[in-house]
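Entry for the shared binder. Reason: the reviewer on the internal report wants the predicted structure included alongside the sequence.
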Amino acid sequence: MVLAEYDFHLFDLDGTLVDAEWAYTRGVFDRVGDRLGRRFSDREAYVLWHGLGGSRGETLRGMGVDPDRFWPAFHDVEDPIARAEATYLHDDAARFLDRLDAANRPVGLVTHCQRFLAEPVLDRLDLGSRFDAVVCCTDETGWKPDPGPLEVAMDAMGVDARDRGYYAGDGESDVGAAWNAGLDAVHVERVGHADRGRCVLGDRRVEAFDELLEAT
């Protein structure tokens, strides 16, 4: 399906291609909690890390946490090297990227993960060379579901909406960004609909990238 139907391929990073070991995530929220004077339960940490409640800002406010206090603390306590060492590439994502390498089509990455965290992960997992463009969202590019970050990546890849492409991600904001940029949306459901508490729509919905290869 994908190799034959699409001219270019765009991916989210965390929760889509890679994930972090739970011990690292739990440690991050312990340190953030110490700074904010509030303990985060396992469920709260899990929901926020994976964006299961939709907008993380709204989820935080629903927990009684000010996002403007949370995010500076969150980024201050993250250790880029420790995060990279705790991050693994999903086996199905590795197989899929191998197929895209062989097909020699433009491949890009657009992530909310900040560059100081994303680059060590890409280096450790030897992923940097897999992508023709890597965009880490900022206030200047915009934040998903704004199409701006995807459009920046597409410009760098030498493609536009007249070419057929998709954006694959695990969150509702990923689907929104794809549609807002005029692309197909592939929703990758790593945690399961029951755990997410809702069903995320998309042009294609898969639990692993193998399902896309099987449809080729």
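Summary line for the report: The CA atoms of residues 151 and 181 lie 7 Å apart.
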